[in-house]
Amino acid sequence: MKIFRNFLESQEKHFVAGGKLERLYPLYEATYTFMYTPGTVTQTASHVRDALDLKRMMIIVVVSLIPAVAMGMYNTGLQANLALQKLSLAAVEGWRGSVLAALGIGIDAGSVLDNVVHGALYFIPLYLITIAAGGVWEVVFATVRRHEITEGFLVTSLLFPLTLPPDIPWWQVVIGISFGVVIGKEIFGGVGMNILNPALTARAFLYFAYPAQISGDAVWVAVDGFSRATPLAELADPVLKLSVTMREAFIGIIPGSIGETSTLACLIGAFVLIVTRIGSWRIMLSVVLGMVGLSALLNFVGSATNPMFQVTPAWHFVLGGFAFGAVFMATDPVSAAMTSQGQWFYGILIGALTVLVRVINPAFPEGMMLAILFGNLFAPIIDKIFINRNIKRRLLNYGR
């Protein structure tokens, strides 16, 4: 590896100011710093020195997402294999079937390996497409603006495919992540300046632009001709009976978006983020408190016509994308509230609004996405209120 590092350093002269490839310096710098720690140090005062930089922070977030990725691939394959067995099909059709056959992998729903490999054939292409399409936009804007390519997209590119149905058309993935990166982030100035979570912005765009491919009963199990409603949709329909247990919902072996079904995986990720102080425990806890408070109130009020009023806080917690959103989306350090007191109000707003959308508007059973985007819009206002309050308090104390 030292030979490769020496080679990269020898080519730097072509990318620095005055070099033939000067405009491509952001691409060179991103490649070098992704593989190696820069040898440059600060020269003048004043600087805040910390062992944690943006790259390492994003890598920790990626590590915290590994349980959700692993569980997402397993559950995607499990749901597909169960559907194939119910349809009495012996193999998977198309290129995925060829790959499985070449690897000697079957469609046994009782085999962890069969489920993981089958699920990976859905998740990995979505992830690679997201990296390619979003990465192009990152390079384009960095080159035009002549600034470094940041590592923030490492997290966005992993979060986005985890929020999608497994069998979504690939061209929609390209359009969705392009919208999220360009409209949700780059037009505001790039990393650190966006007011909305880019991954959720991309997901929201796809939901409203192509609802047939990202909602309904036929998109959650990656088998043509097989449909199954998500548990939240079952709860919202008085005709349907809930087909999953609390244990299945907590573990994540239920229909849903690839990486959002497993509350257990999300809690493991939350532990990593809290211990490393990357994610705000205040936001995570306050989102739960907001959800518990409003859902308990609606349980008490009740409704003779809307069964969602009777969904308990425990079911709200384990179903849909609640845990995933509370841990990985609501805590986005750029679009979330930054003040300690503001984070409590920000989280409670998201938790309560999630229940409000799920219960009052059962035609849209999953409210976490809209609640977080709504919270993102109010985060600057919430922070401003508490910042001004602290300023006034300090002025009063100074005057004394």
For this structure, the quaternary state is: single chain
The 3D shape can be described as globular
Overall pLDDT score:
88
Give the beta-strand count. 0
Strand fraction: under 5%
Largest sheet: none
- Terminal CA distance: 63 Å
The helix fraction, in percent, is: 55-70%
Backbone structural class? mainly alpha
| Overall domain count | 2
Q: Tell me the Rg in angstroms.
A: 23 Å
Number of contiguous helices: 17
Which residues form runs of ≥5 with pLDDT under 50?
none
Order of helices and strands: HHHHHHHHHHHHHHHHH
Provide key terms for this protein.
mainly alpha; 2 domains; 400 residues
Describe this structure in words.
- The protein has 17 helices and no strands.
- It has 400 residues and is mainly α.
- The protein folds into two domains: 2-35, no CATH class; 54-391, no CATH class.
- Helix 3 (54-86) packs parallel to helix 6, helix 7 (170-182) crosses helix 8 (198-209) and helix 13 packs parallel to helix 16 (340-360).
- The longest helix is centred in the first third of the chain and has 34 residues, at 112-145.
- The protein is globular.
